[in-house]
Design brief:
Blueprint: H1 5-35, H2 39-55, H3 65-69, H4 82-87, H5 96-115
Length: about 120
């Protein structure tokens, strides 16, 4: 399958936008580390940093070649989408996409729950 150049351009713009967002996340973490006064403060900031890294992974339709290609068929995509044929309809619970995004959400929850619980060091 040949890449459509207009979609390549959209994906590049999306990636550039994501790069800016990740830069903002890293900059905020660096600033937090520089201004932290306690180890507990450092660990709390690291927890929030890790959460943001997972939360902003580029898994949205604006980052998907096939979603951009088939904007007209969100819920009736199975017959048109090459990704869907191999991985299931992304809008269905049993699709590989949903499995990945569910794991991302669980990881976010576990980071918030376990990384730092307010203990003193």
């Amino acid at each position: 399958m040949e890449i459509k150049e207009n979609l390549r351009e959209i994906l590049v713009k999306s990636a550039e936008s994501d790069k800016i967002e990740y830069g903002r996340i890293f900059n905020a973490y660096i600033q937090a580390v520089q201004s932290a006064e306690t180890v507990e403060g450092l660990i709390e900031e690291k927890k929030l940093f890790l959460y943001d890294l997972v939360h902003y992974l580029p898994m949205s339709p604006r980052n998907c070649y096939f979603c951009l290609l088939h904007t007209d068929c969100e819920y009736d995509i199975v017959n048109k989408c090459g990704y869907s044929k191999a991985h299931g309809n992304c809008y269905k619970e049993d699709s590989d996409y949903q499995k990945i995004t569910d794991i991302m959400e669980k990881l976010e929850d576990k980071i918030l729950e376990f990384y730092y619980k307010g203990e003193l060091y």
